[in-house]
Design brief:
Length: 663
Amino acid sequence: METASRLFPYVWPYRRMAVLSIICAIFISILWAGNLSTVLPMVRVLFQDKNLHQYVDEQIELTQTEIEHRKSVIDQMPTGDVERRARAQRHLSDTTRQLALLATTKKYALPYVPADRFDTIALIFGCFLFATLLKGIFIYLQEVLVGGIVNRVIVDVRKKCFRHALSLDYQTIAAAGPANLMSRITNDVETLAVGLRTVLVRLVREPLKAGGCIAFAFVLNWRLTLLSLLVVPCIGLLFAKFGKSLKKASKGTLHSMSGIYKGLSETFDSLKVVIAFGAARRHRRQFHLSNKEYLNKSMKVIRLSALARPTTELMGTIAVLSAVIPGTYLVLRGTDEIWGVKLAPGAMDIAQLSALYALLAGTLDSVRKLSSVYGDLKRSAAASDRIFEILNEKTKVPEPKEPQIVGRHSRDIRFENVSFTYSQEAVDGNARPPALRNVSVTVPAGEVVAVIGENGSGKSTLLNMLPRFMDPDQGAVLIDGVDVRQIRSHDLRSQIGIVTQETQLFDDTIAENIKYSKPDATWEEVEEAAKQAHVIPFVSHLPAGFATQIGEKGQKLSGGQRQRIALARAILRDPSILILDEATSALDSQSEHIIHKVLKQFVKGRTVFVITHVINDTFLDLVTRIVVMDSGCVAAIGTHEELLKTCAIYQRLYHSNKSQRVA
Ligand code: ADP
Ligand code: MG
């Protein structure tokens, strides 16, 4: 039910198609019940020694005498006996209704019915065939309409998920994990589609078909039909019970599918390492384990949904029999009541019984089809839960309600008493130590500041506060005196350029990768940025030049080349603030040398943060001041010379670097 209300806004735009498909389903159900009802005239013509005209005339005569008889009975009753009179009146009106039906049949239907018995049956077969053809057309139309709706809805949901995921903050997305998100946006959405298709086709059509059959059966004999409907609440109760377990099990399946995605993406993302360390076996083993888990979980779902069909079949048969057995009794004994309870308007004949049986069996068929649908529904409800978990996730870095307009950064950047702890649920539920503790640093505009410290000392975390990858738990980050939380994130980030250790390039041309930071850049601007970043020397050797495709994640280029493209990208953006997070740490010394040369030019007139754990002389040539971080705190701030004298941590870092270089 929850799933339905969640999906409603997505289906609403396609309501016209939905209404059309429901109309198709109505026609299908009428034709279905009509086809089953042909049993009535068939049996009558086959088993009775008269044609339909004679039969109807005879029936009309019989009914008329019965009415006369009943009338006289009522007239003779004492007026005081209200109860008996009322019952007799009811019987009389039943019989009168029957007469009316017969008269209508005689007037409107019989003129078209041939007098010969075989011709009559041939006509019935003809009608049957035509109705089946018509039904086929409506089935086709309904499926196509529903397919159209479902696929459109699914595309919408998928797009909405992607859009919403991108609007979340970095920490939330990273904690969810890319494989998990991917599996939800692909596999889970697909599972949801199966459920939605089921709802719109089966869940509309089958109840209508069942309803049609029951309506026809009601006209035929409402008492017996009612008797068989008594079983329905029991079926409902049973299903509500095991629906819950089914949904839970389905969630397990989807979750383990996320595991499979994770295994795949992890393996293929680090293919080089996997091959180099001969770790294929280990990855195969992991993959085997997640597949085994998936198998176990999905078998549970299968066992549960396999129960649905036989259960409904049994209950349905009980329902049909509870009408047919008394009906058979009535036919064989030639009576209309059992134990004083009236069960038919008059004596039932074999044709009526057959038709009743056919119609109830038709209902059972629909119920059976519905029961196999149940598993799909529960599976997609589980998928919908997981999808809407993403859609309901709130970003931890909300946009300001009353944003402040800021010009190009020109005064200073201040970290004031910043403390931050990574959220607990992201990892293992254990409390984590704070990544930053009361960090205060002020950097005047135009300065080049190095942030130095051991691995895990909180350098990246600190600088991640600046473009608001996350917000501090306490304290504030201010640009020119304005809290970054007060600046519209687009305005804020348009001032910041970031180059990280693992360059993030896309499977596109070199030119497009540079233009990524400023899509409307002119060709001259791109070329200028490329020139500054020393991209030109290696691009000119490529046959396709700037139009060279660099492959997924830029794997067709060397590390140094990738980094230079990343720099060109940052240069093109012309940021007032530049963050270099270990930008040269993974490079060979020649590439590092080139990058430093580029930076020397580029840092002019910008506020720059260089995060590094490698201190060398070209690097020192670049920076004006150094911030030393230690276990989430600022240990010292000063120039190279000052720190060498006063800061033990800095001395240790500097000397260990030196000895590494000598070695
Ligand atoms: P540095 O950049 O100085 O090497 P980081 O700022 O990346 O260090 O990390 C500081 C601390 O925060 C480390 O102890 C690290 O384990 C932890 N940390 C970093 N990123 C995350 C994350 N996404 N989730 C949980 N903890 C993290
Ligand atoms: Mg780091």
